[in-house]
Amino acid sequence: MGVVIPLEEGKNKQASVKPLVDLTKADMDRVNQLILSKAGSDVQMIPEVANHLISSGGKRLRPMLTLASAQMFGYEGENHIKLSTSVEFMHTATLLHDDVVDESDLRRGRSTARMIWGNQASVLVGDFLLGQAFKMMVEVGSLDALDVLATAAAVIAEGEVLQLSVAKNMETTEDDYLSVIRAKTAALFAAAAEVGPIIANTDRASRSALKSYGMNLGLAFQLVDDALDYGGKAADLGKNVGDDFREGKITLPVILSYRRGTPEDRAFWKMAIEQGESSDENLERALGLIARNNGLKDTIARAKHYGTIARDALSPLPASAHKDALMEVIDFCIERVN
Q1: What are the pLDDT digits (tens) for 177-210?
Q2: pLDDT given for residue 6 in this prediction
Q3: Contact 20, 329 (CB under 8 A)
Q4: Burial (CB count <10 Å: 0-12, 13-18, 19+), residue 8
Q5: For residue 5, is pLDDT > 70?
Q6: Which residues contact 109 (CB under 8 A, 6 or more apart)?
């Protein structure tokens, strides 16, 4: 099930994260070692649960942003390794908590930790990883970096609660939705990109540029993710197509389709989302309504808009391989829908 969304014609070269991966490879090897070390515990279940998700094949995009944003300003110390690991632990903790809240069965193509060890273990191991993340931030000794990441942690939690408050409510507006993804997803992208120039002791304009880049990249990334749930393949998603529909999540393709639909269409959405009537037959109808009302097309258009803002944020910075790689990540995130 899915809808293929064509990108603009004339764009032959497929964007890739490979330039970013290549530039950060040596440091990412050290980050991965530190991840495994800091996920260890004498309590056997903690490394079991943590490593189940940590080793499940994520691209580690957020810690790579921290490494690249430190490297591009000539940073040569050790602290970017600890901050990158902190960023990845914050992300992993969020995923563990998310899967419990969303009652998800699949993550990156594997059973979620909660399906194997239970909800309590998933929540508590997420808390352990957050604790380890903050210990490493303190070891770095930068109050500015600690402030940025601690603020992001609080904002992410606010986003989780905000998402709960709008869950299964078809009157949710696009502004409400953007507030959720800005907090839940984009805030960590922004923090990951901003702490690099902080520890490199660069000027405030460069720090602001990376923060804006990360925030808008995160918005584009999540918009594409939400489009893929109705227009992708399970193998690409790492979850089942239509999971957002089955969980009653209010995402932009649904919001647009609901607001642009007929009274009969809106009655269907209320029945399917608010009352949980999420059968395969109803999913097929939902896909048809989203296609008819340009829900996917316009969600991708929004993603491209934020991608352009991210690109403009980086534009004033001096030319470098790192800048080029970060620019290409924008296209990669958006082209996942092709």
Answers
A1: 999 999 999 999 999 999 999 999 999 999 999 9
A2: 46
A3: yes
A4: exposed
A5: no
A6: 56, 57, 234, 235, 238, 239
**pLDDT at residue 7 is higher than 60:** no
Tokens of 112: 């979620």
Cα distances (angstroms) measured from residue 91 to each of 122, 127, 157, 273, 338: 14, 12, 12, 27, 26
Tokens of 123: 């929540």
* 223, 303 Cβ separation under 8 angstroms: yes
Strands 110-111 and 106-107: antiparallel
Task: Please tell me the distance from the alpha carbon of residue 201 to that of residue 221, in angstroms, as a whole number.
Answer: 28
| Pairwise CA distance, residues 27 & 93, whole Å | 22
Neighbours of 208 (CB within 10 A): 13
Give the Å distances, CA to CA, from 241 to 189, 233, 237. 25, 6, 7
In this structure, which amino acid lies at residue 139? Answer: E
Q: What is the pLDDT of residue 110?
A: 84
- Maximal C-alpha separation, the chain: 61
Using alpha carbons, select from 96, 6, 23, 88 the residue that is nearest to residue 53: 96
Which of 3-17, 102-116, 198-212, 311-325 comes out lowest in average pLDDT?
Answer: 3-17
Question: What is the reported pLDDT for 197?
Answer: 98
What pTM was estimated for this model as a whole?
Answer: 0.93
Residue whose C-alpha is closest to residue 304's, from 4, 7, 91:
7
Closest CA to 268 of 295, 284, 286: 286
> Which band of pLDDT confidence, cut at 50, 70 and 90, is reported for residue 10?
very low
* Segment 101-151, tens digit of pLDDT: 888 888 877 889 999 999 999 999 999 999 999 999 999 999 999 999 999
Measure the CA–CA gap between 338 and 330, rounded to whole angstroms.
14
3-class SS letters over 23-51: HHHHHHHHHHHHHHHHCCCCCCHHHHHHH
- Residue 265: both structure tokens together: 């269409």
DSSP codes joined into one string, 128-148: HHHHHHHHHHHHHT-HHHHHH
